[in-house]
Amino acid sequence: MDTIEFRLTYFEYGADGYSSSAVDIFINDENLLPRIHEFEHSVGCNGGHAPIWIKEFYENLSEGYKKNSIPIYGCVCGVTDCCAIYITVEVSDKTVTWKNFILPDEYLFNKIIYQRRFGEFFFDKAQYFREVEKLNRLFKAEE
Questions:
Q1: What are the pLDDT digits (tens) for 59-94?
Q2: What is the mean pLDDT of residues 40-49?
Q3: Alpha-carbon torsion angle 103, 105, 110, 114, nearest 10
Q4: Which residues are CB-neighbours of 52 under 8 A, at least 6 positions away?
Q5: Which SS3 state, helix, strand or coil, does residue 61 take?
Q6: Cys-Cys link to 78, which of 13, 56, 104, 117 (CB 3.0-4.6 A)?
């Protein structure tokens, strides 16, 4: 079983010049974003992905996952859907599965490569939703 942790980080989106609070994703104690960037560089793609704001990420993980897919990373410009990485989240009685890592249609040539490279992650449902709830507490603490 994989483990997941969401950690508070700060990111300068676009040309604002100031940092906004966002979420880093750690799977099995490894930050996922550098792994994605490393993979993209190896296939000649520079997606420019960035962590997503806490509130938006929380909403995606607490309710948005019931749709077909949700973004887990957005664009460095600050607009999530501009250059997002999407996943499918499946929730069962005891597990949560992340799978189908994909980029938007304009990067379709990498779709199959992403799915093969990142495969699937299987999390204990209780541990996963404790982390999701932690996002809610982080967001409320910043209000």
A1: 888 877 777 789 999 888 888 887 788 899 999 999
A2: 72
A3: 30
A4: 22, 23, 60, 71, 72, 73, 74, 80
A5: helix
A6: 13
Mention every residue, 6+ apart, whose C-beta is less than 8 A from residue 2: 27, 28, 121, 122, 123
Residue 142, number of CB atoms within 10 A of its CB: 11
Cα–Cα dist 113/76, whole Å: 22
Helices (H), 19-124: 32-42, 54-62, 111-118
Q: Are 27 and 35 in contact (CB under 8 A)?
A: no
The amino acid at residue 112 is: I
Instruction: Give the span between the Cα atoms of 34 and 46, in whole angstroms.
Output: 12
State both tokens at 89: 């989240």
In this structure, the number of other CB atoms found within 10 A of the CB of residue 118 comes to 20
Calpha distance 8→24 (Å, rounded):
6
User: In angstroms, rounded to a whole number, what is the distance separating the alpha carbons of residues 125 and 46?
Assistant: 33
